[in-house]
Amino acid sequence: MGANFPSPFRTAKNSRMAMAERSAVSDLSDAQKGVIFLLIAHLIWGAMAYYIKLLDHVSPVEIAVHRGLWSLPFAAAMLLVLGNFGEAMAALRSPRTFALLAFCSALIVFNWGFYVWSIQVGRTAEAALGYYVNPLMNVLVGYVFLHERFTRIQAVALVIVSIAVVIQTIAVGAFPWLGLSLAATFCLYGYIRKQVPVTSVASFFIEILILRPFALIYLGWTMSRGSTVFLANAQDTLLLMGLGLFTAATLMLFGAAVKRVRYSTVGLLQYISPSIVFLIAVFAFREPMNELRWLSFVLIWLGLAVFSYAAVREDRSRRALQNSASAAGI
Asked: CA 251, CA 276: separation in Å to the nearest integer?
């Protein structure tokens, strides 16, 4: 039998389908792209709890250091590919921008270190609580400082989620300082990033660049004392380097999303990653679970469902108004 050459009709059909798919992606609004970026980022963030558990024999400080060190090459590569190198250099010459991003660097290292420590000591569920509280803090910041408002249905969703967070706090049985620390630092990080007039890739590159000298000093000190696992064996070395890839990807996606969507939307979508972390804590790490924690988990997803319904309805109304305005020639 002869060779099976592709039919020109099939090839043309495949080309039209590919063009239609590209067109559909290009037709997405900035807000829709922002939501997609957030979803991908939170799926990775949630799954990283299991990844970090593989390094539970490594110091949280060393893990945080390597997250920063190995994020830099990926961030630099993205900077060159996207042509934002000049923007990053200009931002470095601005004292105000440099100071804000230096503060962001300190916040994110603090957040990384405490999150890793919580997983290593069996307090992953409490860390998840912190990331449940974080979106509520974002909503409050959006309302107070960015003048964002909500519909009644969205307000109902916030009340439901607030009740869930209170129940989760009661279930822990103690003041959740760890969770609140994680929530506050990441909320402040997101808010400052939203105020910096620099693209997400450039700002993330600068944040990591600022961290690099301190990270290299720490790494050199631990290697001189023989207390580092880096280069001690292939598995740990590759896992530490891999953290850079995942960290760079998620934070750049988060930074890009924050520029495109309402800050309150950023807050409410952030329930995705702590939900994944919570499930990993219960079913993979076998951390203690009780009825109150399950109740809070159910209420959180109920609140998300209510908010999603409100968001879809609001989007349809806005599109209908835009179409009416276009039809009227306005």
From this structure: 18
